[in-house]
């Protein structure tokens, strides 16, 4: 592949414009047995703000031809490196198979050219890799976890650095869609070098699955959300029916009714058809249910939470007298 041709004057200036090949330029009129494959380098990197990237490693050596292999590294900060308007610059002194860039403040692209000793042209160039410099994140969230103990959810999170950080809002949801703040936590402002750990105990969490996320707000009002974590509180709710079989009136007894229990439902055991719904919002735990109009058969009575999860259920038989 031939992209650039550079004369001696261009070489002294250390940069050249894409033409026939960006690795090919003549130093003399020698003939040689040059490389036929350029080898490869790897791989793309991402820097969180300005910094020094990892060394760019030569993955495979150039092959073909005879004689010692000579390398030359080049760079550009213009994207679309195969475009004819791209300008590449030679990196002075970068002649090894690997290359360690210095500090980068913007996204930069690198490639490595190869030739055989005694040849006048760098005839082949490797793949192009990018070191992407992205805007520094105001908060580097390195962990966010939720663990349960009884009906308490222990939430822990840690930051690796904080820049322009105002506060966290810890949000909770019972359905994974509708969130509300349960705690406000002031941030560290500008503490870019210290790991900071946070924790919060969500006491009396709802039975069933609880969802949590962090809203991080900067001092300039900009904000980001963390990923959602979840924790499940196992309900100890039990339900019993008497008499069973029943003929007309029966008593439904619910023990350890959680705060988020909202309804008691009655279903046909074979078809699953919902036959009645009883409101439990006032904490009722001892209910009288009239089954006189039910046809003989098997039925299911269950307690549901406010997010629709089943907390407890049992079966009963409606019998003829």
What would your notes on this structure say?
The chain is mainly beta and 321 residues long. The chain has 3 domains: 5-134, Immunoglobulin-like; 139-233, Immunoglobulins (Immunoglobulin-like, Sandwich), CATH 2.60.40.10; 238-318, Immunoglobulins (Immunoglobulin-like, Sandwich). The chain contains 1 helix and 25 strands. The protein has one helix at residues 8-13, and strands at 5-6, 15-17, 24-25, 40-42, 45-48, 57-60, 69-76, 87-90, 108-116, 124-125, 129-134, 139-149, 152-173, 180-191, 196-202, 208-218, 223-225, 229-233, 238-242, 249-255, 261-268, 274-279, 286-290, 297-305, 310-318. The strands form 6 sheets. Strands 2, 5, 7, 8, 9, 10 and 11 form a 7-stranded mixed beta sheet that branches. Strands 12, 13, 14, 15, 16, 17 and 18 form a 7-stranded antiparallel beta sheet that branches. A 4-stranded antiparallel beta sheet has the order 22-21-24-25, with no helix packed on it. The protein is elongated, with a radius of gyration of 35 Å. The chain starts with a strand and ends with a strand. 26% of the residues are buried.
């Amino acid at each position: 592949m031939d992209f650039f041709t550079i004369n001696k004057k261009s070489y002294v200036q250390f940069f050249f414009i894409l033409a026939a090949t960006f690795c090919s330029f003549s130093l003399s009129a020698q003939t040689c047995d040059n490389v036929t494959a350029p080898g490869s380098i790897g791989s793309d990197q991402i820097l969180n703000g300005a910094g020094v990237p990892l060394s760019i490693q030569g993955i495979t050596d150039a092959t073909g031809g005879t004689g010692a292999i000579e390398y030359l590294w080049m760079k550009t900060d213009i994207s679309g490196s195969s475009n004819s308007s791209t300008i590449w610059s030679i990196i002075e002194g970068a002649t090894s198979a690997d290359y360690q860039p210095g500090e980068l403040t913007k996204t930069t692209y690198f490639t490595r050219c190869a030739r055989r000793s005694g040849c006048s042209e760098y005839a082949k160039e490797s793949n192009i890799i990018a070191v992407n410099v992205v805007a520094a994140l105001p908060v580097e969230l390195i962990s966010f976890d939720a663990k349960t103990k009884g009906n308490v959810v222990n939430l822990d999170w840690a930051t690796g650095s904080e820049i322009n950080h105002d506060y966290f809002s810890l949000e909770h949801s019972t359905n994974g869609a509708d969130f509300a703040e349960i705690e406000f936590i002031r941030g560290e402002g500008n503490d870019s070098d210290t790991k900071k750990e946070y924790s919060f105990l969500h006491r009396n969490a709802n039975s069933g699955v609880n969802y949590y996320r962090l809203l991080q707000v900067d001092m300039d009002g900009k904000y980001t959300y963390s990923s959602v974590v979840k924790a499940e509180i196992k309900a100890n709710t039990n339900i019993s029916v008497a008499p069973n079989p029943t003929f007309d009136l029966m008593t439904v007894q619910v023990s350890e009714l959680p705060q988020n229990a909202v309804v008691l439902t009655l279903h046909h055991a074979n078809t699953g058809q919902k036959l009645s719904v009883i409101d439990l919002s006032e904490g009722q735990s001892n209910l009288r249910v009239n089954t006189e109009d039910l046809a003989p058969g098997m039925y299911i009575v269950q307690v549901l939470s406010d997010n629709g999860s089943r907390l407890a259920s049992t079966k009963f038989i409606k019998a003829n007298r």
